[in-house]
Write a structure and sequence with these properties.
There is one protein chain. The protein folds into two domains: 3-35, no CATH class; 47-121, no CATH class. It is built from eight helices and two strands. The chain has helices at residues 3-10, 19-25, 28-35, 47-56, 61-71, 78-83, 102-108, 110-121; strands at residues 12-13, 16-17. It has a two-stranded antiparallel sheet with strand order 1-2. The longest helix has 12 residues, at 110-121. It is extended and about 55 Å long. The relative contact order is 0.07. It binds zinc ion (ZN). Residues 92, 94-95, 97, 104, 109 line the site of zinc ion. The site of zinc ion has 6 residues, from loops.
Length: 122
């Protein structure tokens, strides 16, 4: 168990935050911000949990299908293409980062960051 999960377990029981501990250690604005986030759960992050979240999401079918593909790590990135010998280059062609995996494509790539920032601004 890593330090990050140990610290989050100290601040919450499964499914709920320990508000008293949070208020003892952190300023109120930070605590209020934390309380807007759902607490860690042993089930969260598992493939089954992600699958259920993807199919519960009430939105367009094509986006729900894409979320399902992401949750099952089946989107075809350059890292996967290289592993399958479909390319010799695993780099991201948007920003030249050394490996283009799903997390890079959706979150860490500079192109993705621009899109996320535009969505947050609206
Ligand atoms: Zn990139």
């Amino acid at each position: 168990m890593g330090a990050k999960s140990q610290s989050s377990q100290q601040l919450c029981c499964p499914g709920e935050w320990d508000v008293d501990k949070l208020r003892r250690w952190l300023p109120d604005p930070v605590v209020n911000r934390i309380l807007t986030i759902s607490p860690p759960s042993p089930k969260k992050g598992t493939a089954d949990h992600l699958f259920k979240l993807a199919w519960k999401w009430n939105g367009p079918e094509r986006i729900r299908s894409f979320i399902w593909l992401v949750a099952h790590e089946t989107i075809l990135t350059n890292t996967k293409r290289k592993r399958r010998h479909l390319t010799i280059d695993a780099r991201c062609h948007q920003c030249n980062f050394v490996t283009e995996d799903a997390l890079h494509v959706l979150r860490n790539c500079s192109s993705a960051t621009i899109i996320w920032n535009l969505l947050q601004a609206n």
